[in-house]
Amino acid sequence: MELPFEYGELVKQAQFINRKEERKRLAQNLKGGLNTTLISPRRWGKSSLVNQVALDVESRKTRFCFIDLYQIESEAEFYQALSREVIKVTATKMEEWVKLARLFLGKLRPNFSFGVDPLNDFEISLDYGQLEVAFQEVLDLPEKIAKEKNIRMVICVDEFQNLAKFNNPLLFQQRLRSSWQHHKNVSYCLYGSKKHMMMDIFQNKQMPFYKFGDIMFLEKINTAHWTSFICKQFEITKKKIEVQLAEEIVSTVKNQSYYVQQLAHLVWVRTPKNATRDVFLQGVSDLLKQNNMFFSREMELLSPTQIRFLKALSNGVENFHRKEILKEYNLGSSSNVTRIKGALEKKEIIDTLVPKIEFLDPVFELWFTTKYLNK
Ligand SMILES: Nc1ncnc2c1ncn2[C@@H]1O[C@H](COP(=O)(O)OP(=O)(O)OP(=O)(O)O)[C@@H](O)[C@H]1O
Ligand SMILES: [Mg+2]
């Protein structure tokens, strides 16, 4: 039997809930050639959304190609991955791969090596020495193939902000932008979870990707959708949960997609037939236990003042610069508070780009409150 709740993997089709508007907007953008940037904190559902849209849109005439910058360490590796993936999704036969590569990547002297399954598994190696002068060939590869085959290509680049670890990120962005803006048959979908970095790349007038296309800030899936999904998943596995308890699952983790699925799973596993409050509380306790080691390690990286700031935040403080607050929590000066905010934002502990500062991870917040404020 398949488990009714999934987390850690991308969800699709029947397991993919709601996001109707975003799904439509992203599909329309990419079909129509409007480049799109998608931003949300970790684990809200970016990769699943793009993947689902690919399933909605993909056809013989529209090919999707995925690249994850998480695993790519340098500009040269990026070019290698881009060539490989573009060729893989646009041709089906070994001879054609080789032909396309020779035709469009000639200056880079492409070499192929084949894996155990030569029909799906190959690596292309480019002449690294030539890349500095001929990278343009790789960047234009999707456009040239799309034109030649009369198709549209959609290039999806996940964890885009990771380009920051390349040797010269600014030059790299300039190269991408100046080539990509001329592409008529390719749409680009660039997404990532480090909001600050993504916003700096796409919303800063001085940066090459300023006004690159549509920017979508993914929102959380609302409670009604989650609740009916949870109730339904219990029902089809011949178990039962009351709406109110399902709502509590959702609110405990503040609608964050990954955790809703995880907590629902923990409650479901412990439920013989009817979910009870007791089982729910055990589920929450499991969730905290499972994350305990990870969060403890995270705490070791925080300074005592940063921890005091988080205590104030969990106590509901909104204006940290007030004299009494500075004193009560021993936060030093007002400019010190600004520094603390910046540091915690960088560590992805808090989000300051919202009306009210909040913890980014709702389970970390819960864990912190339980442990440090004995609530
Ligand atoms: N539309 C959805 N319907 C149901 N569950 C979802 C949906 N979107 C996300 N999830 C849940 O959230 C989890 C994380 O989703 P996903 O990996 O797509 O997020 P992400 O934003 O790409 O995360 P990361 O920042 O870690 O790359 C999924 O494994 C799934 O459990
Ligand atoms: Mg992702």
Which cofactors or ions or other ligands sit in this model?
adenosine-5'-triphosphate, magnesium ion
Q: What is the ordering of alpha helices and beta strands?
A: HEHEHHEEHEHEHEHHHHHHHEEH
Structural class designation: alpha/beta
Q: Low-confidence parts lasting 5 or more residues at pLDDT below 50?
A: none
Give the tally of structural domains: 3
Number of helices: 15
Mean of residue pLDDT? 94
Q: How much strand?
A: 5-15%
Q: How much helicity do the residues have?
A: 40-55%
> Kindly, what is the distance between the CA atoms of the first and last residues, rounded to a whole number of angstroms?
39 Å
**In total, how many beta strands?**
9
Q: The CATH topology of the largest domain is what?
A: Rossmann fold
Q: Briefly, what CATH class of the largest domain?
A: Alpha Beta
Please outline the major beta sheet: 5 strands, parallel
| CA gyration radius, whole angstroms | 24 Å
CATH architecture of the largest domain: 3-Layer(aba) Sandwich
**Inertia-based shape:** globular
Which superfamily, in CATH terms, is the homologous superfamily of the largest domain?
P-loop containing nucleotide triphosphate hydrolases
Topology:
Elements: H1 20-32, E1 36-39, H2 46-57, E2 62-68, H3 75-90, H4 94-104, E3 111-114, E4 122-125, H5 128-149, E5 152-158, H6 169-180, E6 186-192, H7 195-203, E7 214-217, H8 223-236, H9 243-252, H10 257-270, H11 277-300, H12 304-314, H13 323-328, H14 334-346, E8 350-351, E9 358-359, H15 362-372
Parallel strand pairs: 1-6, 1-7, 2-5, 5-6
Antiparallel strand pairs: 3-4, 8-9
Helix pairs in contact: 1-2, 3-5, 8-9, 9-10, 10-11, 11-15
This protein binds adenosine-5'-triphosphate (ATP) and magnesium ion (MG).
